[in-house]
Amino acid sequence: MDPINYSRYEKLSPFELKDELIKLASGRENRLMLNAGRGNPNFLATLPRRAFFRLGVIATHKQNVCDQEIAGMPEERKAMLDRRYGSLVPDVRSLRFIDRLVADSRTVALNHTAGLSTPQQVQMVLFSLFALMDEQDGYKAELKKVIRRREAALYRELGMPTQSDPNEVAYYTLLDLENIALKLYGPDYAAWVKATYKPNDLLFRIAAETGIVLLPGKGFGTQQPAARASLANLNEYEYAAIGRSLRKMADQFHEDFKRQQPKGK
């Protein structure tokens, strides 16, 4: 495979980042792509949702007064906006007004689910009503078991114990790549991984080499290389395949690490 220039992805928006990861992961005909990045599977057609979003995009001209006003704000105000939208893009100053508007239609950290179309909102109401009708929470309890089995399958093949947190819902699992490296091969290797790769570099390499789409872990409050995998939209055996692929890649990284070490160390 030709070397990939990962630096060109640094200024992508979350939507662009997701699309590029999918392109890389699906770039080989002889390999199945596993998309573990999306935790909100669409049961309705995706085209209407995209259409609603495109309407929002063209609602403001590319050269609009809102972007000009934001650019002309005092530095103190810009710094405040940098903190508000810092989870979306590395260069907040380049973020357009329409993208800020979409993010603010939901909590900024939940930007990936912002701008829900009317059919999706109706669907969410129906789900809520169904949950109220299940007074014994039997359906919810069964779904929790399914999610836990998927998580266990992923970590079993990765060669690590399942992450234990009594407060987590396990809808996502956060793969702290530095912590994984530490537990698999020790502190020297973990430090090398953190120093060698930027947070998004590993995501693109994983997508390109394994066909697995994982999204950045930054929205979960971590700055070091990390990925989040949705446990809501693939089968159990596919999460096992993700674990095996990630372990294989970790082993390959470790071989790279050993080759760079001074002889005799």
Q: What separation lies between the terminal Cα atoms?
A: 31 Å
Average of pLDDT:
77
H/I helix tally = 11
Q: Which word captures the global form?
A: globular
Give the helices and strands as they follow along the chain.
Answer: HEHHHHHHEHHHEEEH
Taking the sheet with the most strands, its summary is: 3 strands, antiparallel
Order of strands across the biggest sheet?
2-5-4
Q: Which spans of ≥5 residues are poorly predicted at pLDDT below 50? A: 39-49
What share of the residues does DSSP label as strand, in percent?
Answer: 5-15%
Structural class: mainly alpha
Structure report:
By secondary structure, this protein is mainly α. The protein is built from 11 helices and 5 strands; from the N terminus they run H-E-H-H-H-H-H-H-E-H-H-H-E-E-E-H. The chain has helices spanning 14-25, 46-58, 65-71, 75-84, 97-104, 118-133, 138-158, 177-185, 187-196, 201-210, 236-259, and strands at 34-35, 172-176, 212-213, 215-216, 226-230. It is globular, with a radius of gyration of 21 Å.
Sum this structure up briefly.
The chain is mainly alpha-helical and 265 residues long. It has helices at residues 14-25, 46-58, 65-71, 75-84, 97-104, 118-133, 138-158, 177-185, 187-196, 201-210, 236-259, and strands at residues 34-35, 172-176, 212-213, 215-216, 226-230.
